[in-house]
Design brief:
This protein is 33% helix and 24% strand. By secondary structure, the protein is an alpha+beta fold. Strands 1, 2, 3, 4, 5, 6 and 7 form a 7-stranded antiparallel sheet that branches. β4 and β5 form a beta hairpin.
């Protein structure tokens, strides 16, 4: 799997801070490494933190993916995330329970807003209403099947 240069991390965090006044720079290099190792990460542009508990439910209609070539250039990766955050500012800004979900799959960088809900029942209900395949439990790292098609129906 292609490696995203670690230098992109600080650059991404600083640029995100331009759009989200309360964002605290965080070391996204470790998050990108986590995405390569574990499949993905979630990070709040509003608070600058990763979720500590609850369930992550993808928000439909806002998914973006970028070609493999973007992973070879830290500045291009940063610009892509920067543009994504700017273009989707309305869903992230001042909403502490909305996170930037990022994962690397098939050599592509995928971005999507994910909502963090504390209750499993509520998270499953929202996922089913929005046709999501699964939700992610933060504490255990497990995926819980919700029977959807990924919001594509």
């Amino acid at each position: 799997m292609p490696r995203v240069p670690a230098a992109a991390a600080g650059f991404i965090a600083r640029r995100a801070g331009r759009f989200f006044r309360r964002a605290e720079p965080v070391p996204l290099a470790s998050q990108i490494t986590r995405a390569r190792r574990e499949g993905g990460f979630s990070w709040s542009p509003t608070t600058g933190r990763v979720p500590a508990r609850g369930y992550m439910v993808a928000q439909t209609g806002r998914t973006a993916h970028f070609p493999q070539s973007i992973l070879d250039d830290s500045r291009a990766t940063a610009r892509a995330i920067d543009k994504y955050l700017h273009d989707n500012r309305d869903i992230f800004e001042n909403r502490k329970n909305i996170y930037l979900g990022c994962w690397i799959q098939d050599g592509k960088l995928w971005l999507e807003p994910s909502r963090n809900l504390l209750g499993k029942t509520r998270a499953v209900k929202l996922a089913r209403e929005t046709d999501q395949i699964a939700i992610y439990e933060v504490k255990t790292g497990d995926y819980i099947d919700t029977g959807g098609a990924g919001g594509f129906l």
